[in-house]
């Protein structure tokens, strides 16, 4: 196991094949708005493909997150890596059994040190659904700044958000364009300079 970064509650490793198998045992989000974050049931062949795609694609990198009890609790993914411009996009997914424990913020703070110091990157971008307040707080604590809010295609196109009374309060964040379900997203970023400035405060 290759450890690339450490937080106070977590440590981050290069993604390992057995970690992909462990994702099959993760819990499920009960919130229907977060259903697309549930890791799908995969065959062994599909898991092998997922691992190789994340591990050996030049424009992607993936890292496992473990707590201090050595439990695999989540992963951090980089996509659309532009190696010349030193910029990429962040994705982060945690086992629902381990959310609201401070692991996400802790892991991301540790990872940012590795991202800027070791990978020599200049900027990290992300987008987060406007309704996802918990994730927004995590990113804000880590120093990410809002760039813009705009509608993007929602991950779960099967969610019937306008037909469910239990989701009525969230309908304001969605709209339909033809048959495509769109949701409001906050586009955020952190630069190397802003990260270092954050460490001094």
From TrEMBL:
Domain N-acetyltransferase: 10-168
Entry keyword annotation includes Phosphoprotein: no
Pfam families reported for this sequence: Acetyltransf_3
Single annotated GO MF: acyltransferase activity, transferring groups other than amino-acyl groups
SUPFAM superfamilies: Acyl-CoA N-acyltransferases (Nat)
Keyword Transferase in annotation: yes
Cross-referenced InterPro entries: Acyl_CoA_acyltransferase, GNAT_dom
Swiss-Prot/TrEMBL keywords: Transferase
Name by which UniProt lists this protein: GCN5-like N-acetyltransferase
Organism: Clostridium aceticum
